[in-house]
Automatic annotation (TrEMBL):
PANTHER family, sorted: ATP-BINDING COMPONENT OF ABC TRANSPORTER-RELATED, IMPORT ATP-BINDING PROTEIN
InterPro entries: AAA+_ATPase, ABC_transporter-like_ATP-bd, ABC_transporter-like_CS, ABC_transpr_LolD-like, P-loop_NTPase
Keyword Nucleotide-binding: yes
Molecular function (Gene Ontology), one example: ATP binding
Keywords: ATP-binding, Nucleotide-binding
Gene Ontology CC terms: plasma membrane
The ABC transporter domain, residue ranges: 5-227
Claim: Acetylation is one of the keywords in the record: no
Name of one Pfam family that matches: ABC_tran
Protein name stated in the entry: ABC transporter ATP-binding protein/MT1014
Signal peptide, first to last residue: none
């Protein structure tokens, strides 16, 4: 079976920016593998996740998710493919502020029929995730904009986990959580990825949770960053 993530000879530069360039000769993440990616601020961690999620495309080389070359998919199909295959947790949670918590958690299922099927009873699945993340059930009908930052992060986590996508990518997903909530999130996420053999790529600058992962890598181990000369 193809690895869940595979990058080959990838090069990327943000359009209009000459300063920062990123190149990845080779990177793979196996199905069911949990990898913690460590790197200093500005080392390109979020950029790498955007490339894997297909929200930006490499200028050279190939990014494959579940064996599919994401650049070869036309825009609409790429969005649906992403919704089916990838649960994403961003640093900015990207919630719909006027949508309810339930709307936000179930959003990816609207574009992903297979994932929706796996979720079963959608409202029940959302309520179950909220309970596991210690979000009060009454909050399901609240507008996302009325929640605290930590609650919003937990909603973003539930949205990534619903319908058990085969790949989770998470960008500093615990930054707004206190230690108890962090533990709850990590327990839930690892329980789910171990049960479903989902792959996990989490980026962080914090090595403290390293013990839970199959592999811990540093950006500099596999990725070359070009920066402007000082
Ligand atoms: N949307 C964007 N448009 C243009 N440049 C960007 C964009 N996002 C990131 N960059 C640039 O890419 C470089 C790497 O940033 P990136 O956010 O990938 O690093 P990071 O390792 O995730 O940092 P942090 O840990 O602070 O989030 C920076 O120079 C940043 O300014």
């Amino acid at each position: 079976m193809a690895p869940i993530i595979s990058l080959q000879d990838v090069q990327f530069r943000w359009p209009g920016r000459t300063g920062f360039g990123l190149s990845v000769p080779q990177f793979e993440l196996a199905r069911g593998e949990a990898v913690l990616l460590l790197g200093a601020s500005g080392s390109g961690k979020s950029t790498l996740l955007s490339l894997i999620g297909g929200t930006v495309l490499a200028s050279q080389g190939t990014v494959r998710v579940a064996g599919e070359d994401i650049a070869s998919l036309p825009g609409g199909r790429r969005d649906r493919f992403r919704a089916e295959q990838i649960g994403m947790i961003f640093q900015q949670f990207n919630l719909l502020p006027f949508g309810s918590v339930l709307d936000n958690i179930t959003l990816p299922l609207r574009f992903a029929p297979e994932r929706r099927k796996r979720a079963g009873d959608v409202q029940r699945a959302a309520a179950g995730l909220c309970a596991a993340l210690a979000l009060p059930e009454g909050l399901l009908t609240a507008k996302a904009a009325t929640l605290s930052v930590g609650q919003q992060q937990r909603v973003a986590v539930a949205r990534a986990l619903i319908g058990t996508p085969p790949l989770l990518i998470a960008d500093e997903p615990t930054s707004a959580l206190d230690e108890t909530a962090q533990g709850q999130f990590l327990d839930l996420m690892f329980q789910q990825i171990r049960a479903q053999r989902s792959g996990l790529l989490m980026v962080s600058h914090d090595p403290r949770m390293a013990d839970r992962f199959d592999r811990v890598i540093e950006m500099a181990d596999f990725l070359h960053v070009e920066r402007p000369a000082a």
